[in-house]
What does this fold into?
Amino acid sequence: MQNSSKAPQPDDCKTMAEVREGVDATDRELIALLARRFGYMRAAARIKPDREAVRDEARKAAVIEAAVRDAGGRGLPEPVIGDIWERLVEGSIAYEFEEWDRTRD
It folds into this structure.
């Protein structure tokens, strides 16, 4: 994702103010991406015919493995990304359960 703000790229930062501006802009971009990801969870909840289909351990493992592999390829700390994605996927599953239940009450 392209940095949509005027914040400098990390290697171009010369001050802590620039670093913080970049971090804040990146956080806003991450939230926008998470909003889209959770939109897909709403779609999944709408599409899946059975509540039991919400939790798919094989899919969960594949998603986390792909994130860790991608992180490693980018020089990021794989254990940290694995932990983040574990929480993200579990939070997504919980949200999808809530949405599944909400749309069928």
Remarks:
- The mean pLDDT is 95.
- The two ends are 38 Å apart (CA to CA).
